[in-house]
Design a protein that fits this description.
Strand content: over 45%
Largest sheet: 6 strands, antiparallel, barrel
Number of helices: 1
CATH topology: Thrombin, subunit H
Number of strands: 6
CATH class: Mainly Beta
Strand order of the largest sheet: 1-2-3-6-5-4
Radius of gyration: 13 Å
CATH architecture: Beta Barrel
Structural class: mainly beta
CATH superfamily: predicted glycosyltransferase like domains
Helix content: 10-25%
Number of domains: 1
């Protein structure tokens, strides 16, 4: 089993994203410099999908390009996705670094 190279930080951040011309809302429950886990309701898109996640920060909206690496299911409902960040911005890396410093 592949292990993460960077430790995930627990968070509770509301996000929105679009995949296959459909709008989704979710909550980032953990993140690192190169990935995050998003809980959501009733998602419906293929594994390995790529899309943009919109993460609101205090004064900015970060637009993060991601690729689905893992999908979780509770009962009959797919309700979470682990995503890898594709070329995360310096602003995103600084944000995660500030969370690490505060922890």
């Amino acid at each position: 089993m592949e292990r993460r190279t960077l430790q995930r930080l627990p968070v509770n951040l509301k996000v929105e994203f679009y995949c296959n011309h459909r709008e989704y809302f979710g909550t980032v429950t953990n993140l690192s410099e190169d990935g995050m886990f998003i809980t959501t309701k009733e998602m419906s898109f293929p594994f390995n999908s790529e899309f943009e996640v919109f993460l609101p920060l205090s004064e900015d909206m970060l637009n993060i390009h991601v690729k689905v690496k893992r999908i979780t299911k509770s009962g009959d409902c797919y309700d979470g996705i682990g995503v890898a960040l594709l070329e995360p911005s310096e602003k995103y890396r600084e944000y995660v670094s500030s969370l690490r410093s505060a922890a």
